[in-house]
Task: inverse folding
DNA sequence: GTGTTTCATGAAACGCATTTCAAAAATATT
DNA sequence: AATATTTTTGAAATGCGTTTCATGAAACAC
């Protein structure tokens, strides 16, 4: 910058002001400085800037790649979410630092803020680490999480309207006059528990005599879901006629397990998935599912975090959630 | 750091050395300093560090979210690649800055390096911007690209062995005694062209009388592929009996288009996809495809870039590529 | 024409850590 | 015990912008 100042025959502060579009500098001077800077391929050093400003304009986005790798990332949903976040951050000229800190190592998160590597965190997928996130947020960290808020959640959560999702699935099954429901998913995750609650509420409200069984599974992959489903169907006398799966991948797996058991999804049984991943639409048969507005999700996550960074309050929120009826 | 120095009753340089594990500091002193730093929740300011070091330990990863959004990211392949890169960078303690600069705006790329926002670039998907990348690399930018190298490519490319992929598909078709080949993809992308060349080479070598037609499509989505396929089948007198599609998504679309035309994939016709995305395996029928070692890809991209950053040479390379035979 | 505002610019300080170079302390050598 | 060597430590300079505060110039008021 000193060089540019010399070349432009002005002082360093003037160059700084010109480059940052400060109104304190005369238009003619600004033009002149900009021209020289451009001609010499000069770019302001971001690190010096960040050091001085104490603001990095960088958001750390945490994605648990490990667990997704384990699942072969069969579920592209989380990546669409990432894409949405990336776009929303880009619109605000914020840099996106992608990191995969240890699930439960709060220190790794703290370190990022303390060392001023980022201004705040967007955590994609809360998993089972509510406690860690709770503590992190309590320490004053600007933090927004994709997931589901509980009664006493002390941080800002943006998520699907899981309870509504459960209700929508329940309504659909009841419209189809189904009686033997199966909830397929691990309710130890709060998102999943809420979907279960929504389903149950609708059932209770319907007055019909409907049972709800639950099938938990250990792993998010297609294979695990298929095995669990097959195993389940083999053991039960009367198979379910309505399955609400925690993901589209799991729903597809159940469709196949049904088929192997001689049950045709969409005829003898209904199946609803979750997320509306692209392949749900072109699976054979196309899978009925709960769709969330991912684009809105990305925008929402980012805008809530920005609010926090500005010292304002950011309440948790849910995004638009709807049932997409297809052939199952 | 001054505060820590005072509290530890040593000087600032000593603290700096202790925290960076320098051998110049006595073990006892280091312990003591570390203890104080830990106790007071002190973390070295990364921005000051980067400023001083002139090395950021940050790699910018460029992903064209726009085009992927347009395609509804039906193809999760690129994200698996991102996951691989993220993991490899994490292992080396490098930060990953995810950015989506304008495809053709070389300035945005330059700016990132000039402003010391990152040490180098990993570009995921070269698309049609070979010229821009060529110029960028020629300007001395440390750059590694996922794609396919051409005759005169002046930058380091890591990619699938596309030519071999084409050969593998061709061999498969010939083994099945297919005669009317269709290459389904846009050969204006170099990766795709290479696959076409590989297929053609095998055909030429076989001595059999085999024709190869090509069906180009404008867009990577399932819908576009399905429409193109349906349209194609409607127009042709004799349908192809072997289709090599540029992606698994497109292959699945063709399976469905075939079905609508009364042709069963795997019986009257063979179809081979590319990438081996998870849903290829559980599509109905499971899709035969060309699989690449993504994990190796991530490692390779990163290690090549690190070599460049160390001033060494980094030749282009291809990763392990194989045929996965399934039902189509 | 003098006094007051307003505007534009620059000198110096600052943000935080690292590095160079010199000095001090500890250890080894004779 | 005195000297030579090695190991540790610290003062000051450095990397690069931004900000504060002061000054000079220009514009306005009377």
Result:
């Amino acid at each position: 910058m000193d060089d540019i100042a010399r070349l432009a025959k002005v002082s360093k502060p003037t160059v700084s002001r010109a480059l940052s579009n400060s109104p304190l500098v005369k238009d003619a001077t600004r033009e002149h400085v900009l021209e020289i800077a451009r001609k010499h391929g000069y770019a302001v050093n971001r690190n010096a800037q960040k050091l001085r400003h104490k603001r990095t304009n960088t958001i750390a986005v945490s994605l648990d790649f490990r667990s997704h790798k384990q699942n072969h990332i069969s579920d592209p949903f989380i990546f669409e979410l990432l894409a949405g976040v990336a776009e929303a951050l880009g619109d605000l000229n914020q840099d996106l630092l992608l990191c995969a800190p240890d699930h439960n190592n709060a220190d790794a998160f703290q370190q990022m803020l303390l060392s001023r590597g980022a201004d705040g965190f967007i955590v994609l997928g809360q998993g089972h680490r509510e406690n860690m996130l709770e503590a992190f947020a309590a320490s004053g960290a600007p933090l927004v999480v994709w997931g589901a808020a509980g009664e006493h959640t002390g941080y800002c959560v943006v998520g699907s309207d899981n309870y509504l999702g459960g209700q929508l699935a329940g309504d659909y099954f009841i419209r189809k006059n189904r009686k033997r429901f199966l909830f397929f998913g691990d309710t130890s995750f709060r998102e999943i528990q809420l979907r279960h609650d929504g389903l149950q509420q609708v059932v209770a409200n319907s007055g019909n005599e409907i049972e709800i069984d639950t099938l938990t599974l250990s792993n998010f992959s297609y294979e695990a879901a298929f095995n669990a489903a097959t195993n389940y169907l083999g053991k039960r006398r009367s198979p379910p006629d309505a399955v609400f799966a925690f993901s589209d991948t799991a729903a597809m797996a159940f469709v196949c397990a049904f088929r192997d058991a001689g049950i045709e999804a969409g005829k003898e049984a209904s199946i609803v998935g979750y997320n509306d991943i692209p392949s749900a639409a072109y699976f054979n048969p196309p899978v009925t599912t709960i769709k969330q507005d991912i684009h809105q999700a990305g925008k929402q996550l980012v805008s809530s975090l920005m609010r926090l960074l500005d010292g304002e309050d950011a309440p948790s929120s849910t995004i638009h959630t709807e049932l997409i009826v297809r052939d199952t």
Q: What stands out?
A: Chain A has three domains: 2-44, 58-160+294-320, 162-292.
